[in-house]
C-alpha cells in the first residue's frame, strides 16, 4: 500500500518492555512513525504487536502448497516462516525446492526457505532425488535461500564426512546460519557438533538436553507440532534463556493449522505465568535476528509486518498486516466461529490472500501390491525364542522404543495381532519396483482396518500399518492409484485424500483439505487408535535419523547402531 494510514492502539514494545497507547503510521510498506497517544484517541481495540514467526516448519506437512498455507497462517497472526523444503526435495530434488520458492512468492507472506542439507537423509533408504554439496552451495548462493536446513546427519559432522563439511562450509561462506538436528546428543559430542558451526536444535525432548546444548552456545527452538510436542518439557527455558529460544511447529497437519499456530504457544506460555515480554521476544523477535529476516519488529523504518490481538492472554488475532498490506481485518470474537470450517452452515473466514493455481510435480513409479507381497515368513524376520523386535510408537514423540513381543504365527508367517496391539507395518518403494519391507509396531491400537501414506519422512515412500493384510493391501493400493496421498480402509469402506504435489501436498483450498483430513483422521481413530494424530505418527516411522527402531524401504533399522537389524 502506498497511501499512508494510521493504527492507534495499545502498543506492545517488546524491546523496551512497555505497553502504551500509540499512533503507528504506515507508509510505503514501512513503519513511518510511532508516537505516544492519549487513551481516548485509541481507534483500534486490542494490542498492536509484531507478527508471529514459525522458526522451523516443513510447509509440506500441512499438506498444502505454500500459497494455501499462508492463507490460513495469517488468520493466526503468523507473518513469516523459516521453512525447510527437504520433504519435497527428497522427492523432486532442485525442482521441488524451486516449486516451493516460486509458489510462495505469489502471495504476500514472508516464506524464508533453506537449502536442504540431507537429501537423502541416509544411504539406508531410497529417495527420489539427491542434493550434493555443489547443488547445496548453488542454493545457498541465492538470495531466496536464507540458511542451511537442519543437519540431520550428525554422525557425519562428528566424523568429519567430507560432503557434510562442504555443505556447512558453503553456508558459512555465504554468511548464512546452519540449523541443527541432533536428538539426544549431549556432552562432548554435542559440543563438537555445535563447534562445527551449527547454531540451533529443535529436537530436544528433555530440559536437561536443551540446557546442555545452550551451555555450548546453541539456540533451542521449542517445538509443538501435530506429532512431536516438546513445549511442556521445555517451556521453562523461555524465562531462563529468553535471548536463545524460539518457537516452531516443525510439522503441522491442516486441521491443527486451522485451529491455531504460534499464537497458541504464546497463550500456553502466559497460562504458565511466564513473562509476557520474554514470550513475545521468543515468538516475534529472536527469529528475525538469528536468521537475518526481512521481517519487521514494530520499529520505525521496519517493514510494516504487525498484528492486532484482542488481549495478551488468548492472543485472538483480529488484524494481520504484511508489508503494510491488510491480510486479515476485524476477525473479532464477536463472530467466534468465523475461522472454523467444521461448523454446520458457517462459511469459513476467507483470507484476503487469494488461492493460486499450481501445476503439480511428482515422482511416482510403482505397481499395486498383493497380499503375497506383504507376507512375513518367520524364517526371514529376526526373532529369539518366539519374541520378535517391535517398534513402539510414542504419542507426541518422534523417537520410538525397541521392544520384544511374542509374535502371532499362522502357517509359518508372522501376522498382525490386534489382541496384543502388535500390528504389521510395511514400507513400499514408490520410486521403482522392489521387495516390500516389513516390520511390526505397537501403540497404533487398530482392532480392524489399515492406513497408508506417501507422507513418510524423509524419503516419502509408502508407509502403512494395519490389522489385516487384506486391508493393508487396499490402503496401499488406494494411494498408489492416486499417485500419492493418505488413505484409510475399514472393511469395505475407504477414504482417500489425494496429494498430487510430490505425494505430499494438495493444490486445493486449504480449508477444504483441512475438512477432508479431519474426516479421514476421525476414520483412522475409529479403527481403535488412541494416538492424537495417527497419520502424523505413521509418517515418522520410517525416519531413520530418529532413534531407536524404524523401518525403511530396505529393512528394519537400528537407530542407535545406525545399521540394519540382521
Structure overview:
It is a single chain. With 566 residues, this protein is α/β, with parallel strands linked by helices. It has two domains: 244 residues, TIM Barrel (Alpha-Beta Barrel), CATH 3.20.20; 193 residues, no CATH class. The protein is built from 15 helices and 29 strands. The protein has an eight-stranded parallel beta sheet. Helix 3 links the parallel strand 7 and strand 8. Helix 3 packs parallel to helix 5 and helix 11 runs antiparallel to helix 12. About 3% of the residues have low confidence.
Estimated helix fraction: 25-40%
- What name does the CATH topology of the largest domain carry? TIM Barrel
Rg calc: 24 Å
Taken together, the total number of domains comes to 2
Record the strand order, biggest sheet. Answer: 5-6-7-8-9-10-11-12
According to CATH, the homologous superfamily of the largest domain is: Metal-dependent hydrolases
CATH architecture of the largest domain: Alpha-Beta Barrel
| Overall pLDDT confidence | 94
CATH class of the largest domain: Alpha Beta
The number of distinct helices, counting runs of at least 4 residues, comes to 15
**Unreliable segments (pLDDT under 50, ≥5 consecutive)?**
333-349
Question: Proportion of β residues?
Answer: 25-35%
Overall strand count = 29
The biggest sheet amounts to: 8 strands, parallel
Structural class: alpha/beta
Amino acid at each position: 500500500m502506498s497511501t499512508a494510514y494510521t493504527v492507534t492502539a495499545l502498543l506492545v514494545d517488546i524491546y523496551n518492555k512497555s505497553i502504551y497507547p500509540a499512533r503507528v503510521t504506515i507508509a510505503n510498506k514501512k513503519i513511518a512513525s510511532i508516537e505516544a497517544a492519549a487513551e481516548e484517541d485509541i481507534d483500534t481495540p486490542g494490542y498492536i504487536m509484531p507478527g508471529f514467526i514459525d522458526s522451523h516448519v516443513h510447509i509440506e506437512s500441512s499438506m498444502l502448497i505454500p500459497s494455501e498455507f499462508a492463507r490460513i497462517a495469517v488468520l493466526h497472526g503468523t507473518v513469516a516462516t523459516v521453512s525447510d523444503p527437504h520433504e519435497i526435495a527428497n522427492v523432486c530434488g532442485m525442482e521441488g525446492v524451486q516449486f516451493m520458492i516460486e509458489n510462495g512468492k505469489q502471495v504476500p507472506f514472508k516464506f524464508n526457505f533453506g537449502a536442504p542439507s540431507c537429501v537423502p537423509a541416509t544411504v539406508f533408504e531410497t529417495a527420489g532425488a539427491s542434493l550434493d554439496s555443489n547443488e547445496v552451495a548453488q542454493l545457498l548462493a541465492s538470495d531466496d535461500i536464507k540458511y542451511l536446513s537442519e543437519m540431520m546427519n550428525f554422525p557425519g559432522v562428528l566424523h568429519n564426512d567430507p560432503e557434510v563439511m562442504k555443505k556447512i562450509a558453503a553456508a558459512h561462506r555465504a554468511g548464512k546460519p546452519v540449523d541443527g538436528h541432533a536428538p539426544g546428543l549431549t556432552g562432548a559430542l554435542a559440543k563438537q557438533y555445535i563447534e562445527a558451526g551449527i547454531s540451533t536444535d529443535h529436537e530436544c525432548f528433555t530440559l536437561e538436553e536443551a540446557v546442555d546444548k545452550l551451555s555450548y552456545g546453541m539456540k533451542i527452538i521449542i517445538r509443538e507440532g501435530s506429532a512431536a510436542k516438546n513445549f511442556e518439557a521445555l517451556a521453562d527455558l523461555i524465562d531462563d534463556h529468553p535471548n536463545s529460544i524460539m518457537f516452531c511447529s516443525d510439522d503441522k497437519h491442516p486441521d491443527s493449522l486451522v485451529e491455531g499456530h504460534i499464537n497458541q504457544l504464546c497463550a500456553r506460555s502466559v497460562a504458565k505465568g511466564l513473562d509476557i515480554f520474554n514470550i513475545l521476544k521468543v515468538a516475534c523477535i529472536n527469529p528475525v535476528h538469528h536468521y537475518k529476516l526481512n521481517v519487521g519488529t514494530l520499529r520505525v523504518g521496519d517493514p510494516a509486518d504487525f498484528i492486532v490481538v484482542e488481549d495478551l492472554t488468548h492472543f485472538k488475532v483480529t488484524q494481520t498486516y504484511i508489508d503494510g498490506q491488510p491480510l486479515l481485518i476485524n476477525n473479532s470474537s464477536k463472530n467466534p466461529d468465523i475461522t472454523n470450517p467444521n461448523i454446520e452452515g458457517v462459511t469459513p473466514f476467507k483470507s484476503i490472500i487469494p488461492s493460486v493455481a499450481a501445476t503439480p510435480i511428482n515422482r511416482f513409479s510403482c505397481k499395486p501390491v498383493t497380499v503375497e507381497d506383504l507376507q512375513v515368513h518367520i524364517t526371514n524376520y529376526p526373532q529369539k525364542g518366539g519374541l520378535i523386535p517391535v517398534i513402539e510408537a510414542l504419542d507426541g514423540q518422534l523417537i520410538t522404543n525397541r521392544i520384544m513381543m511374542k509374535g502371532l504365527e499362522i502357517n509359518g508367517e508372522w501376522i498382525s495381532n490386534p489382541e496384543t496391539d502388535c500390528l504389521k507395518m510395511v514400507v513400499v518403494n514408490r520410486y521403482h519396483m522392489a521387495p516390500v519391507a516389513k516390520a511390526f509396531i505397537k501403540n497404533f491400537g487398530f482392532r480392524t482396518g489399515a492406513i497408508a501414506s506417501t507422507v513418510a519422512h524423509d524419503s516419502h515412500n509408502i508407509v502403512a500399518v494395519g490389522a489385516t493384510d487384506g486391508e493393508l493391501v487396499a490402503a496401499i493400493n488406494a494411494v498408489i492409484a492416486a499417485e500419492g496421498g493418505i488413505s484409510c480402509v475399514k472393511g469395505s469402506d475407504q477414504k482417500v485424500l489425494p496429494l498430487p504435489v510430490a505425494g505430499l501436498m494438495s493444490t486445493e483450498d486449504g480449508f477444504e483439505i483441512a475438512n477432508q483430513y479431519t474426516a479421514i483422521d476421525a476414520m483412522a481413530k475409529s479403527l481403535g487408535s488412541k494416538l492424537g494424530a495417527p497419520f502424523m505418527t505413521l509418517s515418522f516411522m520410517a525416519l531413520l535419523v530418529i532413534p531407536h527402531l524404524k523401518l525403511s524401504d530396505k529393512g528394519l533399522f537400528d537407530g542407535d547402531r545406525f545399521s540394519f537389524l540382521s
